[in-house]
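Structure first, sequence second, as always.
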């Protein structure tokens, strides 16, 4: 009886020791790969997904992401063992018990000087003023487009980069169909909005271009007005 109990204590201690060791190694592996971890969330499937694979551990999932140059976020569900990789650095996510999300911190690609890097994109904040159309042409001449702000984290990032007392042109317009806002370069409908209260109001029926940082939010404005502007280009082209 006594022997048996001693034996199980030894087994338990060994098991505990093993678990502690593997936990430490797990932490170390993740840190080496420069991930930021969010527990209890997983990425929702979207058109920015790279792949879904069944892998046993979240470390294997993190390793998959770090091998993919375009991977910015990954999530692993410990119940289904599903690993999702996503190019977006602002993916839609949901709470899920036992899931874990990782954001890769250092991607090897970098932006040219004067451009700000966020996720897999580079942004240029102009300090000359142009009409919305001329701003769009200028961005295109530099191999970029007027910025398309598609998530709150991209929106928040750009707010920290602009001069807080100026309004900037970004790529949204409803010039073709009143109140149907599209991103002009990708020709996709806006799905994320940050309109200022009571905007867009199409004041005097002539406001069809998207002004960023109007009262720290978005506004519709006359396209011919001169504004500084924000260009965006992907690092992955
Ligand atoms: C405008 O931007 C250019 C390029 O980033 C910079 O060299 C110049 O100093 C800026 N001018 C002003 C007035 O901020
Ligand atoms: C835009 O393109 C022009 C011509 O290629 C180049 O001289 C200029 O430096 C570029 N501007 C930026 C901000 O990259
Ligand atoms: C922001 O813009 C205002 C108005 O043009 C200007 O006076 C100020 O110097 C700018 N601030 C910075 C940090 O560039």
């Amino acid at each position: 009886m006594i022997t048996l109990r001693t034996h199980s204590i030894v087994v338990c201690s060994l098991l505990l020791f093993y678990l502690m060791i593997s936990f430490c190694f797990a932490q170390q592996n993740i840190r080496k790969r420069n991930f930021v971890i969010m527990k209890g969330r997983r990425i929702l499937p979207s058109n920015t997904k790279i792949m879904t694979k069944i892998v046993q551990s979240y470390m294997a999932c993190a390793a998959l992401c770090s091998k993919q140059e375009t991977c910015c976020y990954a999530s692993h569900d410990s119940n289904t063992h599903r690993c999702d990789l996503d190019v977006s650095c602002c993916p839609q996510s949901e709470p899920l018990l036992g899931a874990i999300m990782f954001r890769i911190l250092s991607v090897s690609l970098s932006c040219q000087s004067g451009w700000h890097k966020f996720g897999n994109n580079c942004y240029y904040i102009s300090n000359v003023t142009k009409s919305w159309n001329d701003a769009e042409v200028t961005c295109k001449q530099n191999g970029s487009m007027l910025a398309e702000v598609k998530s709150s984290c991209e929106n928040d990032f750009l707010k920290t980069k602009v001069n807080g007392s100026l309004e900037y042109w970004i790529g949204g317009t409803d010039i073709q169909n009143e109140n149907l806002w599209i991103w002009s370069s990708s020709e996709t409908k806006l799905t994320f909005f940050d309109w200022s209260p009571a905007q867009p109001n199409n004041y005097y029926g002539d406001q069809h271009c998207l002004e960023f940082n109007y009262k720290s939010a978005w506004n519709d404005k006359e396209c011919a007005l001169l504004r500084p502007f924000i260009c965006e280009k992907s690092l992955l082209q």
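Margin note: The pocket of 2-acetamido-2-deoxy-beta-D-glucopyranose (ligand 1) is lined by residues 114, 127 (CB under 6 Å).
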